Amino acid sequence: MPLSGLRVWSVIVAGIIMGACSSLSGNSSVSQQETIPLGQVVYLKNCASCHGPNGEGQNPAAPLSKDATGRFLAPPHDSTGHTWHHDDDLLIQIVREGGMGSPSDFYPMPAFGDKLSDEDITAVIAYIQTLWTEEQRTRQRQATEAVSAQK
Fold first, then answer.
1. Is the Cα dihedral 2, 42, 88, 109 positive or negative?
2. What are the sequence ranges of the domains in the chain?
3. CA angle, corner 103, sides to 119 and 24, nearest 5?
4. Structure confidence by residue, pLDDT tens digits, 72-125
5. Counting beta carbons within 10 angstroms of the beta carbon of residue 38, is it exposed (0 to 12), middle (13 to 18) or buried (19 or more)?
6. Looking at residue 27, what DSSP letter applies?
7. Distance from chain centroid for Cα 116
8. What is the CATH number of domain 5-150?
9. Residue closest to 80 by CA, chosen among 102, 106, 103, 59
């Protein structure tokens, strides 16, 4: 999927922002200029079927509503969602190990640790971050730094 002019600028800005994120910047196999486009490709191939091609989730009109079974559908990862509330380490863990919530409340996300490389997972998270507002990226980066400082 080609990137539009506006998306290209978003990708460039996000790439600059990502350079400051310590837990994601250790990726030496893929350059920062390649990380976000790679993340978009990996996201579209592995995540979009549940979380939407634009990160809108399975129920963009009412993302906090439960379906007929009483469970939440896949949440949005764009600026309308809550993904930006989580630090990078937790996001990486969720992608690797799956899960996230009780099966009685959520449809469990499958684990992708055996399907995606660390580089792919890092790239997906970098791409998802381009879907957030500047304020959300700043707050998420602060959450990541706070968790890293506790280690």
1. positive
2. 5-150
3. 20
4. 999 999 999 999 999 999 999 999 999 878 888 888 899 999 999 999 999 999
5. buried
6. -
7. 14
8. 1.10.760.10
9. 59
- From residue 142, give the alpha-carbon distance in Å to each of 17, 56, 58, 121, 139: 12, 24, 28, 20, 5
Helices 32-46 and 5-18 cross at an angle (nearest 10°) of 110
pTM: 0.78
- What are the residues whose beta carbons fall under 8 Å from the beta carbon of 27, sequence distance 6 or more? 35, 118, 119, 122, 123
In which residue are the tokens 């390649």 written? 34
DSSP 2: P
Per the CB < 8 A criterion, the answer to whether 65 and 76 are in contact is: no
Structure tokens given for 124:
């997906």
CA dihedral (123, 108, 54, 63) positive or negative: negative
The residue assigned the tokens 């660390």 is 118
Q: Is residue 21 within 8 Å of 144, Cβ to Cβ?
A: yes
